[in-house]
Structures are given as structure tokens and as C-alpha cells.
Amino acid sequence: MQGIIFCDIDGTILFHDKIHGVKVINNDRVSVEGKEFDTFDLSTEFYNTYMGKKTYDLFKELSKKYYIVLVTGARRSSIEIRKHKLDFAHAFVIENGGSILDKNLKEDEEWSKRLDNEVKVLNEFKKELKEWVLDDKGRKTSIRIREIDNKEIDDLKKNIKLPKELKQTINIGSLDIICKSSGKDNAVKHFIKKLKSKPSFGIGDDINDLDFLRIVEHKFVLGSSFEKVLETAKKEGWYVSKDKYFDGINEILENILFQKVFKQ
Fold first, then answer.
1. Which of 72, 146, 180, 198 sits at a 20 to 30 Å CA gap from 44?
2. Tens digits of per-residue pLDDT, 165-184?
């Protein structure tokens, strides 16, 4: 393998109807901002999401040369539903680093044991959030409080006090409470150390991607990323795709595949 590609999922390779304005034309074609794309429907019971067929083909080609790790805040059930079109991945990091799975979705028990005590604290802390609407179905190592379900979430993001064993991150506008020893950044460090492979590439779009992007050698964000991510990327000289959404991720993948210039 020539290196490792760490890539976020939602907002980076999958795009949502409500969040990104994707409009369905038929079973395998959508439009966004007036442009049409051939896609796969990878919707779950929680979100309607779509991946470009060209994106899939590019990842399949890259998987012959690079070890691909998909790094996401999603729960296991979402990966199980989407796995047939995420088959280019060699491993998955789910729940913002709360669990690591191999390509067959077998859990990395060594990683899980590291978090055992913190997960206990997380489950106890969940009891203190009974006044909030939680999106925690199927989540074992994280708590999500969604913006769409909670009117006062901005105050919670600013003022929540967590036990020392826990930390918070933001994902698609939601507040995610996770174990202190997890996080996308710590999971990425784990893989870099384990595989001893360089160069490393990171692709993301959201605030919870910033920490792991700072670790990798080559950093990419989509032109459709959240504003804070775009501001950080431009300030620190990361690659920002000229295009957005489906075209944006394809631009980045082609950049890596054909070894183009990695900085703007």
C-alpha cells in the first residue's frame, strides 16, 4: 500500500436531502444546486443520503493502492446498511472514534477495552440529560443531541459541564458527547502507528474532522464544508476543492489517484 486515506462519510462522500439540499429525480439520479448526478441511495432510518457512482468508482480504484479508513460519527447500524457500497474501505472508525471495525465489521476489542471505564461514565452521565431529546438509538460509545430535536442546543454546547472522562464535539450541527480517549484524531493516530505507512491523507467537511485532519500529512476539505472548516483550511493552507458536494469529493479523489499537487 502506498499510504492511508482517512475519509469522513456524511457531508464528504454521502450527501443529505435536508442538510445539503439533494433532490431525488429517480431511483439512481439526484440533483443538487441544479446539477444532476448518478448516485446510489444509501439512506438509513435516520437520514436520506446519496453517494455518487463516480465517487464509488474512484474509491474502488484507490483501494488498490491505498489503505482506506472511513472515519465517521455514525453508529454501527448505519454502516451495516451502507456496507455494500462502502466495500472499498479496509476499516471503519464509528461514533467519532468510539469503535473501530475491520472491513467485515469485526470490532477491534483492544481499542474497545481502552474505553471501557469511560463508556461506564458516559452511560451514567446520560441520566443527567433526561430533559433533552437524545438521538442515542444503537449508539454504544457516544451520545448525540440533535439540533433539529432541541431548541436550546446552542446554550448546551456552550455551557455543558462534562466529567473528566468525557469530551464533546460537533457533528452536522449536533452535539456529540464522546469518551475522552476516543475521537477521530486518536483513532487516526492508532492507525498511523499500527500500519507504519506514509504518506497519509485526510478528507473531511465538518468541525469534528478538524482534529484528525491536523494529524495527517495531506489535508483536503470540500468546497461545501461548514464555514469554520473552510476558514481553518484557508488559514492553514489545506486543499479546498474548487467544486462542492459530489464534484468536490471527486475532485479530491482524482487529485490523490493521479498524484496531482496536494496544495492549492
1. 180
2. 999 999 888 999 999 999 99
**Cell 499537487 belongs to residue:** 261
Indicate the residue type of 172: I
State the pLDDT confidence band at 196, using cuts at 50, 70 and 90: confident
Structure-block grid coordinates of residue 201? 491523507
Burial class of residue 126 (count of CB atoms within 10 Å of its CB; 0-12, 13-18, 19+): middle
- CB count in 10 Å sphere of residue 237: 10
Domains in the chain: ranges and CATH = 3-111+182-257 (3.40.50.1000), 113-179 (no CATH)
* Whether the Cβ atoms of residue 66 and residue 88 lie closer than 8 Å to each other: no
| Cβ contact 93:9 at 8 Å | no
Q: Where are the beta strands (DSSP E) in 140-249?
A: 142-145, 166-171, 174-179, 200-204, 218-221, 239-240
For the whole prediction, is pTM greater than 0.85?
yes
Per-residue pLDDT of 119-141, as tens digits, reads 999 999 999 999 999 999 999 99
